[in-house]
Amino acid sequence: MANDILLENKGLHATVGNKKILKGIDLTIRKGEIHAVMGPNGAGKSTLLRAISGDLEPNKGTVEMGPGERLSVLEQDHFKYDQYSVRDTVLMGHQPLWQNMKEREALYMKEDFNEEDGIKVAELEDKFAQMDGWNAESDADQMLSNLGIMDDKHDKMMSELSNNEKVRVMLAKALFGHPDNLLLDEPTNDLDLDTVMWLEEYLSNVEQTVLVVSHDRHFLDAVSTQTVDIDFGKVTVFSGNYSFWYESSQLALRQAQNQRQKAEEKRKELEEFIRRFSANVAKSKQTTSRKKMLEKLNVEEIRPSSRKYPGIIFQMEREPGTQILEVEGLKAVEPDGTVLFDNVNFNIEKGEKVVFLSHNPKAMTALFEIINGNRKADACDYKWGVTITTAYLTLDNTKFFQSDMNLVDWLSQYGPGNEVAMKGYLGRMLFSGEEVLKKVNVLSGGEKMRCMIARMQLQNANCLILDTPTNHLDLESIQAFNNNLVGFKGNILFSSHDHEFINTVANRIIELTPSGTIDKLMSYDEYIYDEAIKEQKAKMYGIQ
Protein backbone atom coordinates (compact mmCIF):
# COMPACT_ATOMS: atom_id res chain seq x y z
CA MET A 1 0.00 0.00 0.00
CA ALA A 2 1.12 3.56 -0.72
CA ASN A 3 2.25 5.50 2.35
CA ASP A 4 -0.74 7.82 2.32
CA ILE A 5 -3.32 5.02 1.86
CA LEU A 6 -4.62 3.97 5.28
CA LEU A 7 -7.58 1.83 4.29
CA GLU A 8 -8.28 -0.01 1.05
CA ASN A 9 -11.20 -2.23 0.04
CA LYS A 10 -10.89 -4.36 -3.08
CA GLY A 11 -13.78 -6.16 -4.79
CA LEU A 12 -15.96 -6.50 -1.68
CA HIS A 13 -19.05 -8.70 -2.04
CA ALA A 14 -21.34 -9.19 0.96
CA THR A 15 -24.63 -10.99 1.53
CA VAL A 16 -27.02 -10.40 4.45
CA GLY A 17 -29.48 -13.28 4.78
CA ASN A 18 -30.18 -14.29 1.19
CA LYS A 19 -29.83 -10.77 -0.16
CA LYS A 20 -26.72 -9.54 -1.98
CA ILE A 21 -25.98 -6.09 -0.56
CA LEU A 22 -22.43 -5.24 -1.69
CA LYS A 23 -21.35 -6.15 -5.22
CA GLY A 24 -17.68 -5.69 -6.06
CA ILE A 25 -16.98 -2.58 -3.94
CA ASP A 26 -13.62 -0.83 -4.51
CA LEU A 27 -12.84 1.97 -2.06
CA THR A 28 -9.51 3.64 -1.25
CA ILE A 29 -9.27 6.02 1.70
CA ARG A 30 -6.19 8.18 2.23
CA LYS A 31 -4.74 9.71 5.36
CA GLY A 32 -6.85 12.51 6.83
CA GLU A 33 -9.87 11.85 4.59
CA ILE A 34 -13.31 11.67 6.16
CA HIS A 35 -15.77 9.87 3.92
CA ALA A 36 -19.50 10.40 4.44
CA VAL A 37 -21.29 7.20 3.43
CA MET A 38 -24.73 7.89 1.94
CA GLY A 39 -27.47 5.86 0.35
CA PRO A 40 -31.16 4.97 0.64
CA ASN A 41 -32.28 2.84 3.60
CA GLY A 42 -31.27 -0.77 2.90
CA ALA A 43 -28.66 0.17 0.27
CA GLY A 44 -25.77 -1.29 2.29
CA LYS A 45 -24.20 1.57 4.29
CA SER A 46 -23.99 -0.29 7.61
CA THR A 47 -23.09 -3.51 5.77
CA LEU A 48 -20.03 -1.81 4.27
CA LEU A 49 -18.85 -0.69 7.72
CA ARG A 50 -19.45 -4.17 9.16
CA ALA A 51 -17.48 -5.79 6.32
CA ILE A 52 -14.54 -3.40 6.86
CA SER A 53 -14.57 -3.91 10.64
CA GLY A 54 -14.57 -7.70 10.35
CA ASP A 55 -17.98 -8.04 12.01
CA LEU A 56 -19.32 -9.43 8.72
CA GLU A 57 -17.23 -11.80 6.62
CA PRO A 58 -17.37 -10.68 2.96
CA ASN A 59 -18.23 -13.34 0.40
CA LYS A 60 -15.39 -12.07 -1.74
CA GLY A 61 -12.75 -9.33 -1.73
CA THR A 62 -10.27 -7.93 0.80
CA VAL A 63 -9.91 -5.16 3.35
CA GLU A 64 -6.34 -3.92 3.79
CA MET A 65 -4.80 -1.53 6.30
CA GLY A 66 -1.27 -0.20 6.54
CA PRO A 67 1.19 -2.07 8.82
CA GLY A 68 0.65 -1.44 12.52
CA GLU A 69 -2.53 0.55 11.98
CA ARG A 70 -5.39 0.45 14.42
CA LEU A 71 -9.06 0.28 13.48
CA SER A 72 -11.75 1.48 15.88
CA VAL A 73 -15.50 0.97 15.52
CA LEU A 74 -18.51 2.61 17.18
CA GLU A 75 -20.23 -0.47 18.59
CA GLN A 76 -24.02 -0.74 18.72
CA ASP A 77 -24.36 -3.35 21.50
CA HIS A 78 -24.91 -1.15 24.56
CA PHE A 79 -24.99 -4.10 27.03
CA LYS A 80 -21.73 -5.74 25.98
CA TYR A 81 -19.62 -4.03 28.66
CA ASP A 82 -22.09 -4.06 31.56
CA GLN A 83 -19.63 -5.99 33.76
CA TYR A 84 -16.91 -3.33 33.32
CA SER A 85 -16.50 0.14 34.76
CA VAL A 86 -17.14 3.19 32.58
CA ARG A 87 -13.45 4.21 32.51
CA ASP A 88 -12.25 0.66 31.73
CA THR A 89 -14.75 0.43 28.86
CA VAL A 90 -13.22 3.53 27.28
CA LEU A 91 -9.67 2.25 27.84
CA MET A 92 -10.61 -0.97 26.02
CA GLY A 93 -11.05 1.16 22.93
CA HIS A 94 -7.24 1.09 22.59
CA GLN A 95 -6.92 -2.70 22.60
CA PRO A 96 -3.08 -2.92 22.48
CA LEU A 97 -2.88 -0.53 25.46
CA TRP A 98 -5.58 -2.42 27.38
CA GLN A 99 -3.87 -5.74 26.71
CA ASN A 100 -0.58 -4.27 27.94
CA MET A 101 -2.23 -3.04 31.16
CA LYS A 102 -3.78 -6.46 31.86
CA GLU A 103 -0.50 -8.32 31.18
CA ARG A 104 1.49 -5.97 33.47
CA GLU A 105 -1.16 -6.27 36.16
CA ALA A 106 -1.06 -10.10 36.01
CA LEU A 107 2.74 -10.19 36.23
CA TYR A 108 2.87 -7.80 39.18
CA MET A 109 0.31 -9.97 40.98
CA LYS A 110 2.46 -13.11 40.66
CA GLU A 111 3.69 -14.48 43.97
CA ASP A 112 6.66 -16.27 42.33
CA PHE A 113 7.84 -13.26 40.30
CA ASN A 114 11.15 -14.29 38.62
CA GLU A 115 13.90 -12.77 36.48
CA GLU A 116 12.13 -13.70 33.24
CA ASP A 117 9.00 -11.93 34.50
CA GLY A 118 11.11 -8.88 35.29
CA ILE A 119 12.44 -8.74 31.74
CA LYS A 120 8.90 -9.11 30.37
CA VAL A 121 7.60 -6.35 32.66
CA ALA A 122 10.39 -4.03 31.55
CA GLU A 123 9.43 -4.61 27.91
CA LEU A 124 5.76 -4.00 28.69
CA GLU A 125 6.58 -0.83 30.64
CA ASP A 126 8.56 0.49 27.68
CA LYS A 127 5.69 -0.20 25.26
CA PHE A 128 3.24 1.26 27.79
CA ALA A 129 5.20 4.53 27.85
CA GLN A 130 5.40 4.58 24.04
CA MET A 131 1.60 4.34 23.89
CA ASP A 132 1.33 7.27 26.34
CA GLY A 133 -0.13 4.86 28.88
CA TRP A 134 0.66 7.03 31.92
CA ASN A 135 -1.87 9.60 30.64
CA ALA A 136 -4.45 7.05 29.48
CA GLU A 137 -6.83 7.25 32.43
CA SER A 138 -6.85 11.05 32.52
CA ASP A 139 -7.33 11.12 28.72
CA ALA A 140 -10.26 8.68 29.05
CA ASP A 141 -11.80 10.83 31.79
CA GLN A 142 -11.44 13.95 29.64
CA MET A 143 -13.06 12.24 26.65
CA LEU A 144 -15.97 11.12 28.82
CA SER A 145 -16.45 14.63 30.23
CA ASN A 146 -16.39 16.12 26.72
CA LEU A 147 -19.21 13.76 25.79
CA GLY A 148 -21.35 14.68 28.78
CA ILE A 149 -20.43 11.85 31.19
CA MET A 150 -19.39 13.67 34.34
CA ASP A 151 -16.67 12.64 36.81
CA ASP A 152 -19.01 10.97 39.33
CA LYS A 153 -19.97 8.36 36.68
CA HIS A 154 -16.45 7.31 35.58
CA ASP A 155 -15.97 4.67 38.31
CA LYS A 156 -19.50 3.30 38.02
CA MET A 157 -20.35 0.04 36.28
CA MET A 158 -21.75 0.32 32.76
CA SER A 159 -24.84 -1.56 33.96
CA GLU A 160 -25.68 1.43 36.21
CA LEU A 161 -25.90 3.89 33.30
CA SER A 162 -28.95 4.85 31.25
CA ASN A 163 -29.04 3.84 27.58
CA ASN A 164 -28.39 7.45 26.55
CA GLU A 165 -25.27 7.52 28.75
CA LYS A 166 -24.08 4.19 27.36
CA VAL A 167 -24.28 5.61 23.83
CA ARG A 168 -21.86 8.36 24.86
CA VAL A 169 -19.46 5.95 26.54
CA MET A 170 -19.38 3.75 23.42
CA LEU A 171 -18.56 6.83 21.35
CA ALA A 172 -15.77 7.77 23.80
CA LYS A 173 -14.44 4.20 23.49
CA ALA A 174 -14.38 4.47 19.67
CA LEU A 175 -12.55 7.81 19.72
CA PHE A 176 -10.10 6.98 22.51
CA GLY A 177 -6.41 6.74 21.71
CA HIS A 178 -6.54 8.36 18.26
CA PRO A 179 -7.08 5.24 16.11
CA ASP A 180 -5.70 5.40 12.56
CA ASN A 181 -9.02 4.28 11.05
CA LEU A 182 -12.41 5.06 12.53
CA LEU A 183 -15.82 3.64 11.54
CA LEU A 184 -18.83 5.56 12.86
CA ASP A 185 -22.39 4.34 12.22
CA GLU A 186 -24.90 7.06 13.19
CA PRO A 187 -22.63 8.64 15.85
CA THR A 188 -25.00 11.56 16.55
CA ASN A 189 -27.97 9.35 17.57
CA ASP A 190 -29.16 10.20 21.10
CA LEU A 191 -26.69 13.08 21.41
CA ASP A 192 -27.86 16.57 22.31
CA LEU A 193 -26.99 19.43 19.99
CA ASP A 194 -24.11 20.70 22.17
CA THR A 195 -22.41 17.29 22.15
CA VAL A 196 -22.88 16.97 18.39
CA MET A 197 -21.14 20.33 18.00
CA TRP A 198 -18.22 19.06 20.11
CA LEU A 199 -17.97 15.93 17.94
CA GLU A 200 -18.00 18.04 14.76
CA GLU A 201 -15.15 20.14 16.11
CA TYR A 202 -13.21 17.07 17.25
CA LEU A 203 -13.43 15.21 13.93
CA SER A 204 -12.66 18.36 11.95
CA ASN A 205 -9.30 18.64 13.66
CA VAL A 206 -7.99 15.06 13.63
CA GLU A 207 -5.77 13.47 11.00
CA GLN A 208 -7.57 10.15 11.07
CA THR A 209 -9.17 8.18 8.28
CA VAL A 210 -12.90 8.13 9.00
CA LEU A 211 -15.93 6.48 7.43
CA VAL A 212 -19.17 7.86 8.82
CA VAL A 213 -22.82 6.97 8.21
CA SER A 214 -25.25 9.65 9.38
CA HIS A 215 -28.62 11.25 8.60
CA ASP A 216 -27.43 14.52 10.14
CA ARG A 217 -26.69 16.80 7.17
CA HIS A 218 -25.00 19.56 9.18
CA PHE A 219 -22.73 17.01 10.81
CA LEU A 220 -21.80 15.47 7.45
CA ASP A 221 -21.10 18.90 5.98
CA ALA A 222 -18.98 19.90 8.96
CA VAL A 223 -16.70 16.85 8.96
CA SER A 224 -16.59 15.15 5.56
CA THR A 225 -14.06 15.70 2.77
CA GLN A 226 -15.45 13.01 0.44
CA THR A 227 -18.86 11.49 -0.20
CA VAL A 228 -19.37 7.77 -0.81
CA ASP A 229 -22.70 7.13 -2.47
CA ILE A 230 -23.99 3.54 -2.18
CA ASP A 231 -26.98 2.81 -4.36
CA PHE A 232 -27.90 -0.86 -4.09
CA GLY A 233 -24.54 -2.41 -4.70
CA LYS A 234 -22.95 0.33 -6.78
CA VAL A 235 -20.51 2.75 -5.14
CA THR A 236 -19.54 6.19 -6.45
CA VAL A 237 -17.04 8.47 -4.68
CA PHE A 238 -17.34 12.26 -4.99
CA SER A 239 -15.16 15.07 -3.76
CA GLY A 240 -16.98 17.37 -1.40
CA ASN A 241 -19.60 17.12 1.34
CA TYR A 242 -23.32 16.30 1.41
CA SER A 243 -24.48 19.83 0.47
CA PHE A 244 -22.22 19.88 -2.56
CA TRP A 245 -23.49 16.45 -3.65
CA TYR A 246 -27.16 17.38 -3.16
CA GLU A 247 -27.08 20.86 -4.71
CA SER A 248 -24.88 19.86 -7.64
CA SER A 249 -26.94 16.72 -8.40
CA GLN A 250 -30.15 18.78 -8.37
CA LEU A 251 -28.58 21.31 -10.75
CA ALA A 252 -27.40 18.50 -13.03
CA LEU A 253 -30.93 17.02 -12.99
CA ARG A 254 -32.47 20.35 -14.05
CA GLN A 255 -29.88 20.59 -16.81
CA ALA A 256 -30.67 17.07 -18.03
CA GLN A 257 -34.34 18.00 -18.25
CA ASN A 258 -33.52 21.15 -20.26
CA GLN A 259 -33.04 19.84 -23.79
CA ARG A 260 -32.49 23.31 -25.23
CA GLN A 261 -29.45 24.19 -23.12
CA LYS A 262 -26.17 23.74 -24.98
CA ALA A 263 -23.34 21.62 -23.56
CA GLU A 264 -21.03 24.63 -23.28
CA GLU A 265 -23.66 26.59 -21.34
CA LYS A 266 -24.18 23.64 -18.99
CA ARG A 267 -20.47 23.37 -18.26
CA LYS A 268 -20.18 27.11 -17.56
CA GLU A 269 -23.19 26.89 -15.21
CA LEU A 270 -21.60 23.97 -13.33
CA GLU A 271 -18.25 25.78 -13.10
CA GLU A 272 -20.00 28.86 -11.72
CA PHE A 273 -21.80 26.65 -9.16
CA ILE A 274 -18.45 25.19 -7.98
CA ARG A 275 -16.97 28.70 -7.75
CA ARG A 276 -19.88 29.99 -5.62
CA PHE A 277 -19.94 26.89 -3.41
CA SER A 278 -16.18 27.09 -2.83
CA ALA A 279 -16.37 30.80 -1.98
CA ASN A 280 -19.09 30.16 0.63
CA VAL A 281 -17.16 27.32 2.27
CA ALA A 282 -13.94 29.34 2.27
CA LYS A 283 -15.70 32.09 4.27
CA SER A 284 -17.13 29.65 6.78
CA LYS A 285 -15.67 28.31 10.00
CA GLN A 286 -13.86 25.38 8.35
CA THR A 287 -10.60 23.63 9.10
CA THR A 288 -7.75 23.17 6.64
CA SER A 289 -8.89 19.65 5.78
CA ARG A 290 -12.34 20.92 4.79
CA LYS A 291 -10.83 23.63 2.64
CA LYS A 292 -8.57 21.13 0.90
CA MET A 293 -11.77 19.47 -0.26
CA LEU A 294 -12.46 22.49 -2.44
CA GLU A 295 -9.36 21.88 -4.53
CA LYS A 296 -10.78 18.54 -5.70
CA LEU A 297 -14.22 19.69 -6.81
CA ASN A 298 -14.66 19.29 -10.54
CA VAL A 299 -17.38 19.41 -13.19
CA GLU A 300 -16.81 15.81 -14.34
CA GLU A 301 -18.05 14.40 -11.03
CA ILE A 302 -21.33 16.30 -11.16
CA ARG A 303 -24.21 14.23 -12.48
CA PRO A 304 -27.94 13.81 -11.85
CA SER A 305 -28.86 11.57 -8.94
CA SER A 306 -31.22 8.61 -9.29
CA ARG A 307 -32.51 9.20 -5.76
CA LYS A 308 -36.27 9.42 -5.24
CA TYR A 309 -37.55 12.17 -2.96
CA PRO A 310 -41.03 11.96 -1.40
CA GLY A 311 -43.54 14.62 -2.44
CA ILE A 312 -44.18 16.36 0.90
CA ILE A 313 -46.57 19.27 0.37
CA PHE A 314 -48.40 20.92 3.29
CA GLN A 315 -51.26 23.21 2.27
CA MET A 316 -53.55 25.35 4.41
CA GLU A 317 -57.33 25.04 4.05
CA ARG A 318 -57.84 28.44 5.68
CA GLU A 319 -55.70 31.49 6.33
CA PRO A 320 -54.85 31.91 10.05
CA GLY A 321 -55.99 35.02 11.88
CA THR A 322 -53.80 37.23 14.02
CA GLN A 323 -54.22 35.19 17.23
CA ILE A 324 -52.31 31.90 17.00
CA LEU A 325 -51.41 30.56 20.48
CA GLU A 326 -51.02 32.28 23.84
CA VAL A 327 -49.40 30.49 26.80
CA GLU A 328 -49.22 31.82 30.38
CA GLY A 329 -47.51 30.30 33.41
CA LEU A 330 -47.10 26.83 31.94
CA LYS A 331 -45.48 24.20 34.18
CA ALA A 332 -44.75 20.49 33.70
CA VAL A 333 -43.38 18.11 36.34
CA GLU A 334 -42.48 14.43 35.92
CA PRO A 335 -43.94 11.81 38.33
CA ASP A 336 -40.52 11.58 40.04
CA GLY A 337 -40.64 15.31 40.82
CA THR A 338 -38.29 16.48 38.01
CA VAL A 339 -39.34 19.94 36.83
CA LEU A 340 -39.29 19.91 33.03
CA PHE A 341 -40.18 23.59 32.73
CA ASP A 342 -41.82 26.29 34.80
CA ASN A 343 -43.18 29.80 34.33
CA VAL A 344 -43.40 29.46 30.55
CA ASN A 345 -44.98 32.44 28.82
CA PHE A 346 -45.13 33.14 25.10
CA ASN A 347 -47.40 34.44 22.36
CA ILE A 348 -47.02 32.98 18.86
CA GLU A 349 -47.35 35.53 16.06
CA LYS A 350 -48.62 34.87 12.55
CA GLY A 351 -45.98 33.35 10.25
CA GLU A 352 -43.61 32.34 13.05
CA LYS A 353 -41.78 29.02 12.89
CA VAL A 354 -40.65 28.27 16.41
CA VAL A 355 -38.18 25.64 17.54
CA PHE A 356 -38.40 24.60 21.19
CA LEU A 357 -35.17 23.56 22.89
CA SER A 358 -34.27 22.09 26.28
CA HIS A 359 -31.51 20.12 27.96
CA ASN A 360 -34.24 17.57 28.72
CA PRO A 361 -35.95 16.30 25.53
CA LYS A 362 -38.99 15.27 27.60
CA ALA A 363 -39.74 18.98 28.06
CA MET A 364 -40.68 19.54 24.41
CA THR A 365 -42.84 16.41 24.29
CA ALA A 366 -44.63 17.52 27.47
CA LEU A 367 -45.30 20.99 25.99
CA PHE A 368 -46.68 19.57 22.74
CA GLU A 369 -48.84 17.02 24.58
CA ILE A 370 -50.26 19.78 26.79
CA ILE A 371 -51.18 22.20 23.98
CA ASN A 372 -52.74 19.30 22.05
CA GLY A 373 -54.94 18.41 25.04
CA ASN A 374 -53.28 15.02 25.66
CA ARG A 375 -51.62 15.89 28.98
CA LYS A 376 -52.70 17.94 31.95
CA ALA A 377 -50.30 20.71 32.89
CA ASP A 378 -49.20 21.22 36.49
CA ALA A 379 -49.95 24.90 36.09
CA CYS A 380 -50.96 26.80 32.99
CA ASP A 381 -53.32 28.66 30.87
CA TYR A 382 -53.15 28.37 27.10
CA LYS A 383 -55.47 29.52 24.35
CA TRP A 384 -55.57 28.77 20.63
CA GLY A 385 -56.91 31.33 18.15
CA VAL A 386 -60.38 30.52 16.73
CA THR A 387 -59.03 30.29 13.16
CA ILE A 388 -56.24 27.85 13.99
CA THR A 389 -56.28 24.23 12.86
CA THR A 390 -53.45 21.97 13.95
CA ALA A 391 -51.73 18.83 12.69
CA TYR A 392 -49.55 17.05 15.26
CA LEU A 393 -46.67 14.69 14.52
CA THR A 394 -46.11 12.81 17.77
CA LEU A 395 -42.78 11.48 19.01
CA ASP A 396 -44.25 8.05 19.73
CA ASN A 397 -46.59 6.89 16.96
CA THR A 398 -46.99 3.28 18.19
CA LYS A 399 -50.72 3.58 18.94
CA PHE A 400 -51.48 4.59 15.34
CA PHE A 401 -50.22 1.30 13.91
CA GLN A 402 -51.76 -1.31 16.21
CA SER A 403 -53.98 -2.66 13.46
CA ASP A 404 -53.87 -5.08 10.54
CA MET A 405 -55.38 -2.56 8.10
CA ASN A 406 -53.59 -1.97 4.80
CA LEU A 407 -52.06 1.43 4.06
CA VAL A 408 -54.97 2.64 1.90
CA ASP A 409 -57.63 1.81 4.51
CA TRP A 410 -55.45 3.21 7.30
CA LEU A 411 -54.93 6.55 5.59
CA SER A 412 -58.61 6.81 4.61
CA GLN A 413 -59.47 7.25 8.32
CA TYR A 414 -57.83 10.65 8.45
CA GLY A 415 -59.26 12.71 5.64
CA PRO A 416 -61.71 12.94 2.75
CA GLY A 417 -61.07 11.24 -0.58
CA ASN A 418 -61.59 7.93 -2.37
CA GLU A 419 -59.18 5.02 -2.78
CA VAL A 420 -57.54 6.63 -5.81
CA ALA A 421 -56.83 9.82 -3.84
CA MET A 422 -55.33 7.84 -0.94
CA LYS A 423 -53.11 5.87 -3.31
CA GLY A 424 -51.99 9.21 -4.74
CA TYR A 425 -50.94 10.48 -1.30
CA LEU A 426 -49.14 7.20 -0.58
CA GLY A 427 -47.47 7.26 -3.99
CA ARG A 428 -46.05 10.70 -3.28
CA MET A 429 -44.64 9.21 -0.05
CA LEU A 430 -42.87 6.54 -2.17
CA PHE A 431 -45.28 3.65 -1.53
CA SER A 432 -45.72 2.21 -5.00
CA GLY A 433 -47.64 -0.69 -6.56
CA GLU A 434 -48.55 -3.49 -4.16
CA GLU A 435 -46.81 -1.72 -1.26
CA VAL A 436 -50.01 0.24 -0.56
CA LEU A 437 -51.65 -3.06 0.46
CA LYS A 438 -49.06 -3.78 3.17
CA LYS A 439 -50.39 -4.16 6.70
CA VAL A 440 -49.53 -1.14 8.82
CA ASN A 441 -48.41 -3.28 11.78
CA VAL A 442 -45.40 -4.62 9.81
CA LEU A 443 -44.02 -1.26 8.65
CA SER A 444 -40.48 -0.12 9.46
CA GLY A 445 -39.82 3.02 11.52
CA GLY A 446 -39.13 5.05 8.37
CA GLU A 447 -42.29 3.77 6.63
CA LYS A 448 -44.41 4.65 9.66
CA MET A 449 -43.03 8.20 9.65
CA ARG A 450 -43.87 8.62 5.97
CA CYS A 451 -47.42 7.42 6.71
CA MET A 452 -47.73 9.93 9.56
CA ILE A 453 -46.56 12.73 7.27
CA ALA A 454 -49.15 11.67 4.66
CA ARG A 455 -51.79 11.74 7.42
CA MET A 456 -50.76 15.29 8.34
CA GLN A 457 -51.02 16.44 4.74
CA LEU A 458 -54.67 15.31 4.64
CA GLN A 459 -55.51 17.65 7.51
CA ASN A 460 -54.63 20.86 5.59
CA ALA A 461 -53.79 22.55 8.89
CA ASN A 462 -52.44 26.08 9.24
CA CYS A 463 -50.31 25.21 12.29
CA LEU A 464 -47.97 22.20 12.25
CA ILE A 465 -46.70 20.73 15.54
CA LEU A 466 -43.71 18.45 15.01
CA ASP A 467 -41.99 16.50 17.80
CA THR A 468 -38.54 15.46 16.51
CA PRO A 469 -39.82 15.02 12.92
CA THR A 470 -36.64 13.63 11.32
CA ASN A 471 -36.55 10.49 13.51
CA HIS A 472 -36.31 7.29 11.41
CA LEU A 473 -36.31 9.20 8.11
CA ASP A 474 -33.63 8.76 5.46
CA LEU A 475 -31.71 11.71 4.05
CA GLU A 476 -34.01 12.03 1.03
CA SER A 477 -37.14 12.27 3.18
CA ILE A 478 -35.46 14.70 5.59
CA GLN A 479 -34.38 16.92 2.70
CA ALA A 480 -37.86 16.92 1.11
CA PHE A 481 -39.54 17.58 4.48
CA ASN A 482 -37.10 20.39 5.21
CA ASN A 483 -37.57 22.04 1.80
CA ASN A 484 -41.37 22.15 2.12
CA LEU A 485 -41.38 23.54 5.65
CA VAL A 486 -39.12 26.41 4.58
CA GLY A 487 -41.82 27.51 2.12
CA PHE A 488 -44.87 26.74 4.33
CA LYS A 489 -46.96 29.90 4.91
CA GLY A 490 -48.56 28.86 8.21
CA ASN A 491 -47.11 28.44 11.68
CA ILE A 492 -44.76 25.65 12.77
CA LEU A 493 -43.99 24.64 16.36
CA PHE A 494 -41.32 21.97 16.49
CA SER A 495 -38.43 20.30 18.27
CA SER A 496 -35.47 18.69 16.57
CA HIS A 497 -31.91 17.47 17.07
CA ASP A 498 -31.12 18.17 13.40
CA HIS A 499 -28.95 21.30 13.21
CA GLU A 500 -29.64 22.00 9.53
CA PHE A 501 -33.38 21.45 9.95
CA ILE A 502 -33.54 23.97 12.81
CA ASN A 503 -31.29 26.53 11.14
CA THR A 504 -33.25 26.58 7.86
CA VAL A 505 -36.82 26.35 9.23
CA ALA A 506 -36.93 28.26 12.54
CA ASN A 507 -37.18 32.07 12.75
CA ARG A 508 -37.75 32.07 16.53
CA ILE A 509 -36.17 30.05 19.34
CA ILE A 510 -37.76 29.30 22.71
CA GLU A 511 -35.72 27.32 25.22
CA LEU A 512 -37.63 25.65 28.06
CA THR A 513 -35.78 25.51 31.38
CA PRO A 514 -36.80 24.62 34.97
CA SER A 515 -36.82 28.35 35.78
CA GLY A 516 -38.47 29.98 32.75
CA THR A 517 -37.74 30.52 29.06
CA ILE A 518 -35.17 32.07 26.79
CA ASP A 519 -37.03 33.55 23.84
CA LYS A 520 -35.13 34.95 20.84
CA LEU A 521 -35.95 36.09 17.31
CA MET A 522 -32.77 34.93 15.61
CA SER A 523 -31.26 32.06 13.65
CA TYR A 524 -30.13 28.92 15.41
CA ASP A 525 -26.47 29.51 14.48
CA GLU A 526 -26.63 32.98 16.04
CA TYR A 527 -28.28 31.55 19.14
CA ILE A 528 -25.75 28.79 19.88
CA TYR A 529 -22.70 31.01 19.46
CA ASP A 530 -24.00 34.01 21.47
CA GLU A 531 -21.90 34.33 24.64
CA ALA A 532 -24.58 36.26 26.58
CA ILE A 533 -27.12 33.53 25.86
CA LYS A 534 -24.64 30.85 26.99
CA GLU A 535 -24.32 32.64 30.34
CA GLN A 536 -28.10 33.05 30.65
CA LYS A 537 -28.63 29.34 29.93
CA ALA A 538 -26.10 28.29 32.58
CA LYS A 539 -27.93 30.38 35.23
CA MET A 540 -31.40 29.13 34.26
CA TYR A 541 -30.35 25.47 34.31
CA GLY A 542 -28.44 26.01 37.55
CA ILE A 543 -25.10 25.05 35.98
CA GLN A 544 -22.11 26.26 37.99
SSE layout:
Layout: E1 5-16, E2 19-30, E3 34-38, H1 45-53, E4 60-65, E5 71-73, H2 86-91, H3 95-108, H4 115-130, H5 136-146, H6 163-175, E6 181-185, H7 193-204, E7 209-213, H8 217-223, E8 226-231, E9 234-239, H9 242-257, H10 263-283, H11 288-294, E10 325-333, E11 339-348, E12 353-357, H12 361-371, E13 379-384, E14 390-393, H13 407-412, H14 419-428, H15 445-459, E15 463-467, H16 475-487, E16 491-495, H17 499-505, E17 508-513, E18 516-520, H18 524-529, H19 531-540
Parallel strand pairs: 3-7, 3-8, 5-6, 6-7, 12-16, 12-17, 14-15, 15-16
Antiparallel strand pairs: 1-2, 1-4, 8-9, 10-11, 10-13, 17-18
Helix pairs in contact: 3-4, 9-10
